[in-house]
Design brief:
It is built from 11 helices and 4 strands. It is mainly α.
């Protein structure tokens, strides 16, 4: 009886019990920063796991994911926006040589490590020496009040500049630099360029050497590469001011690119279809 008591299995507290076996093939590594994320929904965590397990070039549009899973397109679109907000996804529009605009998706499996690496590069970078005509940064310039009234174009410019680090980690800007450079970037938007076109121009043909001062580098490009205004009348007639051109958005219904002032909306075709279904 004593031997049986000694060989009995130890008592374990209540809760989950793991029985693990090593995977020899067909597996994906997921960090606890994603699996135990406090702010992501379980739909977003599961969707990120699925996307990270896909091979390059796989379709990850809203329609393709909704066809793969029982969740509808609305929940899929909301989960994609969650992952984009927390740095696990980046979606932007690109124009193909044929002229068609498509949505490109980039998946990041470890945003904390990527942001930490960019921060370390910024801290340990040597002082600037060979940047093309960098502008001296004022030492005593006060930071604008974030609660003050800011034009819509400048708000979009701040978001555009903040997201440049997703295209290249060397272009990490501080919040102060983002606010300071936003008026110059807003001029590009006021001249009819969409945010994706501005970002593509600012990040085209980046130097292979380290960028010691991202703020000075972008300030130089914002001034030197500024496109001219487009006249909307014939030669000899007075030039009209630029019209408001809304940025390209991804339709939550069909995932096609269209222009809209607000994100998370539907294109005209999907809106008409929904209206017809409701009327029926």
């Amino acid at each position: 009886m004593a031997d049986q008591q000694l060989s009995a299995p130890p008592r374990v507290p209540s809760g989950i019990r793991h029985i693990n076996h090593d995977h020899s093939r067909g597996y994906v590594k997921i960090g606890n920063h994603l699996a135990q994320h406090r702010e992501l929904s379980v739909t977003a965590i599961g969707l990120a796991t699925h996307i990270q397990s896909l091979p390059p070039g796989a379709k990850v549009t809203i329609k393709a994911l909704a066809a793969r899973f029982p969740e509808g397109e609305v929940r899929i679109a909301a989960a994609l926006r969650e992952l984009e907000q927390h740095g696990y996804l980046d979606r932007f529009q690109e124009r193909l040589p044929s002229g068609r605009v498509v949505t490109c998706t980039v998946s990041y499996n470890n945003p904390p490590a990527r942001f930490a690496e960019a921060h370390r590069e910024r801290r340990h970078a040597p002082p600037p020496s060979s940047d093309p005509d960098p502008e001296p940064e004022p030492a005593s310039e006060p930071t604008p009040d974030p609660g003050a009234d800011v034009p819509q174009a400048e708000l979009e410019a701040r978001e555009l500049l903040a997201r440049l680090r997703l295209r290249d980690p060397r272009l990490v800007l501080s919040e102060r630099d983002t606010v300071r450079l936003a008026p110059a970037a807003a001029v590009w938007l006021d001249r009819g360029l969409v945010p994706s076109a501005v970002a593509a121009t600012l990040t085209r043909s980046l130097p292979m050497t380290p960028i010691h001062s991202p703020a000075a580098f972008l300030s130089h490009r914002l001034q030197e590469l500024l496109p001219p205004r487009l006249p909307y009348s014939r030669a000899g007639a007075p030039v009209l001011p630029d019209r408001v051109v809304h940025p390209l958005r991804s339709c939550d219904g069909c995932d096609l690119a269209f222009r809209s002032p607000t994100p998370g909306s539907y294109c005209d075709a999907c809106t008409a279809t929904a209206t017809a279904v409701t009327a029926a």
